[in-house]
Amino acid sequence: MGAIIIVDAFWGDSGKGKISAYLTRRENAELCVRAGIGTNAGHSLYLGTLKELQLISTRQLPLGFLNPLTMVAVGAGVAVNPSIFQEEVEKYHLQDRARVDYRCPIITEEHIKQEQESAHLSGKIGSTCSGSGAARADFVLRKAGQAKDIAGLQPYVTDVAYLVNKAARSGTVIVEGSQGALLSLGLSPDYPYVTSGDCTSLAAAAQIGLGWQNISEAVMVLKALPSRVGEGPLPNELSADEIKERGIAEHGVVTGRLRRKAVGIPWGLLRYVAILNSPTQIALTFCEHYDPEVEGVTTRERLTPKVWELITKVEAQTGTPVTLVGTGKLFEHIVDLSERAAHSCVKSNNKKEFV
Ligand code: IMP
Ligand code: MG
After folding, report:
1. Is 343 a residue of the active site?
2. I need a surface site. Which of 64, 67, 80, 90 has the fewest CB within 10 A?
């Protein structure tokens, strides 16, 4: 019972969408709500086989729709591009089970153009130029449109804040956050190399109007080799050649840019984001980039000593159990350690001394 919030530790692209889809199925969630900023986020996962990958990707709707029994919705604080919303509804046949909060601010072509034409945003910051920031700025100035004003959205508009709290009291709700804690507008140390809103667990709850008593868990998704797209600091960054040599290149879902990648987890920053997000669980993803031997592994017995050492270090540094381990591209490339966490000596209440 309650809402499980999924957020990212660092700079996004850690596989929140896959974790959300997985938990939506495992928990039989009746509702999955997208929180976060807008259509700047690309959430994706792969079905099929390694030979024939089938990409499922969205920028507006949460990937929780992979459970055919789950309703999916966009929370009130998320900027909505009506064309993208409608395209995704059609592409994934969600006409009967997609909703959008009537208060969502609307992204227009003008917002996208403004961002593309801004040398500051497209050049210096490396914005995705999705129009999300410009729409949010207009919303703050009280001149943006809202979902309730858009004819094409009428079949889908509702009070998602009401729905999410109601559903969290009678069953399980998954909240799919976007971006990452260190891209937070107000809480990242890296301003101006940030997005246009905060991306922590409680920011996600606030964005969708979820009351704190209805939150049951916060899952922080941590990428074994963190990545960043756009400008701003990335500790221990690998060169483009090193990325290629290791065979771990990734490209952004929204812009197709090559993601910058780090050689490992920056431990001081991890302790900091564990304070900001105060997770009750951690999903450690992209472990196959850290140790290629775990590629595609689905059982705990096949995790290598190298990955177990990493899990143990993450738990020791954050005071939070690692409950899910991502091992590859495909949806089923995941090891579920949640039973172990129930018996773990690592307490899941994240009360480590501040460092
Ligand atoms: P904007 O939010 O599109 O203006 O982009 C601001 C910064 O956040 C840029 O560095 C983007 O690359 C980054 N960013 C925005 N959305 C995402 C995301 O979903 N994943 C990773 N980085 C993002
Ligand atoms: Mg992404």
Report:
1. no
2. 90
